[in-house]
Design brief:
Blueprint (H helix, E strand, L loop, with lengths): L2 H27 L10 H28 L3 H12 L10 H16 L4 H69 L3 H29 L2 H38 L19 H18 L4 H9 L3 E6 L18 E5 L8 E6 L2 E6 L3 E3 L2
Antiparallel strand pairs: 1-2, 1-5, 2-3, 3-4
Length: about 375
């Protein structure tokens, strides 16, 4: 037999098998043929796998929407991923807002109340943008990728074996039908032989499918670990954002009420009443809620040549040698130095001396 003859016979056999399965499937749907039912355990495993697939896809897609709300950006990232190329880095919304605020504050003047506040807000927004970028990267690696690997890997294998099991069942039931219709002894013997073979192939495929499906429990355990990683990434992100905004609130609340106006008027000229009221309300809220030093006390200290005791509200790590590191609840001596930035005082602890941020202090009587 040459190769061509073999291929022709194989195609004919495949066509016959396909036709037999189609007839059996149609008759089952019409109620004209019996159907071999899978055992209850296997049916439960199949149902569990299908349920896992459906909800994994929904959770995965909605997580992608949460991390990247822009649908066009998601499509672009998907295309780059399929091309196995890295998507170009783009500035995110908090970073863009932060840059606008910093540019505006610089143009209005860092020495003005509004300009200084804009710069501080802009720097905070950019830090939030960086934290947002880290959340996306961590979540994509530790949460989305394992879920996608299941859908595109393990479940595809399960679906392939499940379809093969369906075909083996159709072959088995078609063989049962042919045996029932067999009249002659020779035909009946051949049909019985076919039935034994199809039953064996069906049982073997059912076992293979069952073993794969039982791995779904391990998949759930793995996805649980990934879910914990995702929650931890979100917790870190929100904690960072909260701390950034808390620090920003303290900085804005420390503005003295007679801060330079946006028209660069002298310090003796009061700021407009609306800004004064807003800053005053913020300072009062900060003082009552967080124990932050009231601006009036700071102003009095800056205008005098004396020193005061102050309690440290929060730990502070010095950024350079001109600053003094602080520990929460310690008491230090503070005083003003001519020309020093309004957000800072000079702090002294024993032989150590350096600049300290006003918002980390509570002046004592």
């Amino acid at each position: 037999m040459n190769i061509m003859d073999f291929n022709v016979k194989k195609l004919a056999a495949d066509a016959g098998t396909f036709l037999s399965r189609a007839v059996q499937f149609t008759e089952e749907k019409l109620g004209q043929a019996e159907k071999t039912e899978l055992d209850a355990h296997l049916e439960n495993l199949l149902s569990k796998a299908e349920c896992t697939k459906i909800w994994t896809e929904k959770i995965m897609k909605q997580t992608e929407v949460l991390l990247q709300p822009n649908p066009n950006a998601r499509i672009e990232e998907f295309v780059y991923e399929k091309l196995d190329r890295k998507a170009p880095s783009r500035i995110n919304n908090p970073e863009l807002l932060g840059q606008y605020m910093i540019d505006a504050g610089t143009e209005f003047g860092p020495g003005t109340a509004y300009g200084n506040a804009l710069i501080k807000c802009g720097e905070t927004q950019k830090r939030i943008g960086t934290a947002d970028r880290e959340l996306i990267q961590t979540s994509a690696l530790n949460f989305l990728t394992p879920l996608r690997n299941f859908i595109e890997g393990d479940y595809k294998t399960i679906a392939k074996e499940r379809k093969l099991l369906q075909n083996k069942r159709l072959d088995l039931d078609a063989a049962k039908t042919r045996l029932k219709k067999a009249k002659a002894a020779e035909t009946r013997s051949s049909s019985e032989q076919e039935l034994r073979i199809t039953q064996s192939e069906f049982d073997r495929q059912a076992e293979i499918t069952r073993l794969l499906l039982e791995g779904i429990s391990s998949t759930h355990a793995h996805h649980l670990r990934c879910l914990n990683d995702f929650v931890e990434a979100q917790m870190t992100y929100y904690a960072q954002c909260y701390q950034y905004m808390l620090d920003l609130q303290k900085q804005l609340g420390s503005f003295p009420s007679n801060y330079l106006s946006n028209n660069n008027q002298t310090s003796g000229t009061p700021v407009p009443s609306t800004l004064s009221n807003a800053v005053g309300s913020s300072a009062m809220a900060s003082t009552s809620g967080l124990g932050i030093t009231a601006p009036s006390s700071v102003t009095e200290l800056k205008e005098s040549s004396g020193s005061r005791k102050a309690r440290v509200l929060y730990d502070y790590d010095a950024a350079n040698s001109t600053e003094l590191s602080l520990l929460a609840d310690e008491v230090i001596t503070v005083f003003s130095v001519v020309g020093m930035d309004s957000d800072w005082l000079m702090g002294e602890r024993g032989n150590q001396k350096g600049k300290v941020p006003i918002t980390y202090l509570e002046l004592l009587n």
